[in-house]
Amino acid sequence: KGKLVAVTNQKGGVGKTTTAINIATSLAAINNKVLLIDLDPQGNASTGLGIGLNDRFPGSYEMLGELDDLNEAIKATVVPGLEIISATVDLSAVEIELVDEKDRMHRLHKHAAKLKKKYNYIFIDCPPSLGLLTINALIAADSLLIPLQCEFFALEGLSQLNKTIERIKLNLNEKIYIEGILLTMYDKRNRISEEVKKEVVKYFGKDVFNTIIPRNVKLSEAPSHGLPAILYDLNASGSKAYIKLAREMIRRLKRR
Amino acid sequence: KGKLVAVTNQKGGVGKTTTAINIATSLAAINNKVLLIDLDPQGNASTGLGIGLNDRFPGSYEMLGELDDLNEAIKATVVPGLEIISATVDLSAVEIELVDEKDRMHRLHKHAAKLKKKYNYIFIDCPPSLGLLTINALIAADSLLIPLQCEFFALEGLSQLNKTIERIKLNLNEKIYIEGILLTMYDKRNRISEEVKKEVVKYFGKDVFNTIIPRNVKLSEAPSHGLPAILYDLNASGSKAYIKLAREMIRRLKRR
Ligand SMILES: Nc1ncnc2c1ncn2[C@@H]1O[C@H](COP(=O)(O)OP(=O)(O)OP(=O)(O)O)[C@@H](O)[C@H]1O
Ligand SMILES: Nc1ncnc2c1ncn2[C@@H]1O[C@H](COP(=O)(O)OP(=O)(O)OP(=O)(O)O)[C@@H](O)[C@H]1O
Ligand SMILES: [Mg+2]
Ligand SMILES: [Mg+2]
């Protein structure tokens, strides 16, 4: 049975989309069936996997709406074994449009069981906020992958995120747990990176992945070619780090 | 009469908070009375100016609520001439709490005239989304300062931002205009930075500030000391760039 993982952090620009694209690709590359759900109105994950603006209908907006056959929203990507439900700016209307619907927080959850029968892993790329789109992901997910940029401001958001997770556990999804906290854009020349790492390990202990994603320009170049870094430049330090992360996730899964 | 500027971009991590703190400080340093309003539930601008968690009540959440005397929410900072209305995580409840209020989008606007009599410049640090908090800022503001990270994904958000601005102009605030688009985290060693710059100038022309903010580690170290970069390290390339931006803003203001 598949596993549904929300890639989330309300702090902006910490590497959520870059992580979602590259972990999904790495797991697909070692013979898993993987689905990526783009839940960000910016649609960066869809662009990063080369999905043109005209190929995104139906997508995640329709999935949260009245789409009967979910399979219509699922599209192939350039990566064998990886499929996507893509995003458009229409998603930003969801918060207002669903305000009176009783099940507005469970729209994604109602599709979860079906999707977990079809895929080994399902990753959700979340927007940088704790609004209705992210709440849908937190309720549907089995676990959370939390990218954390090695910067001072990123530490500040952690305690808020922890409080939000506790609240979700209490009221909406008691089984959710932290898959792992992933340190991103780590730069060994920069003192702050090491300080953040020490602080995070002190605060979250075993929940912190051993794998650390270095700052690597190839990771920011790849999306402009519509390719995950692993297809753009397999030997880049960023690509290797995400492949290592995929192996670590599988090892952790076995231990649970 | 003062000018109210919203620092906004729904893309995360592009340098909104870093820009709001350092442009406000630079203008205060050349004898302007400046106010910074932190409208992000993460409260990064408040932290970056050294405002402790216990010193934030009343703040911007109360300002949008039923606060009678706005002056109670205004606090001094370490920078002479710069005051702040700080933020707490309570702000994230605003979207839900005000959903039935008719004036929910004009809560900030109703304070604008009073504040513009007291300050030369008022900057609003917005969260990375286009929800109710940012809409409040877009309606209250005279103009928009749009930080744009020199990265591929940042370009993608521009057309969405432009559409949002057009919609606001049409329905909610016809006088709003773009103060300027500010290129941030520019790294001359990275090919993408130059590509993004060319693309933005092609798309936005004169609306792009001549001043470009370089990637500079001092800008990311300063907030951990509760200081704007200009007080942390005046000679850093990042500090000098924001001082140059302050002068450019004043020149542009005179020309309008
Ligand atoms: N390890 C890395 N090294 C270098 N650049 C990176 C790395 N990870 C991400 N980036 C770049 O940093 C920027 C922010 O990353 P990304 O867009 O993945 O973050 P995000 O958390 O999804 O942002 P948002 O909050 O807007 O959704 C992007 O331009 C991306 O290409
Ligand atoms: N020019 C720069 N050089 C180096 N680091 C920078 C620069 N500008 C900002 N930073 C760092 O990059 C990170 C993102 O910047 P910042 O938090 O200001 O962006 P933001 O747009 O306000 O993010 P959010 O979308 O979460 O509100 C921060 O850790 C900040 O210290
Ligand atoms: Mg993203
Ligand atoms: Mg910010």
Order of strands across the main sheet of chain A: 3-4-2-5-1-6-7
Main structural class of chain A: alpha/beta
Q: Which blocks of ≥5 consecutive residues of chain A have pLDDT under 50?
A: none
Major protein interface: A-B, 38 and 38 residues
What is the share of helical residues of chain A? 40-55%
Percent strand of chain A: 5-15%
What is the number of helices of chain A?
11
Write the element-wise H/E pattern of chain A from the N-terminal end onward: EHEHHEEHHEHEHEHHHH
How many strands, what sense, and barrel or not for the largest sheet of chain A?
Answer: 7 strands, mixed
End-to-end distance of chain A, in Å?
A: 14 Å
Mean pLDDT of chain A: 95
How many β-strand stretches of chain A? 7
Rg of chain A is 17 Å
What spatial form of chain A do the alpha-carbon principal axes imply? globular
Oligomer state equals: homodimer
Q: What small-molecule ligands were found?
A: adenosine-5'-triphosphate, magnesium ion
Characterization of this structure:
2 copies of one chain form a homodimer. Chain A is of the alpha/beta class. Chain A is built from 11 helices and 7 strands. In chain A, strands 3-4-2-5-1-6-7 form a 7-stranded mixed sheet, sandwiched between helices. In chain A, helix 1 (16-29) packs across helix 11 (237-255) and helix 5 crosses helix 6. Chain A is globular. In chain A, 51% of the residues are buried. The mean pLDDT of chain A is 95. The interface between A and B is large, with 38 and 38 residues. The structure holds adenosine-5'-triphosphate (2 copies) and magnesium ion (2 copies).
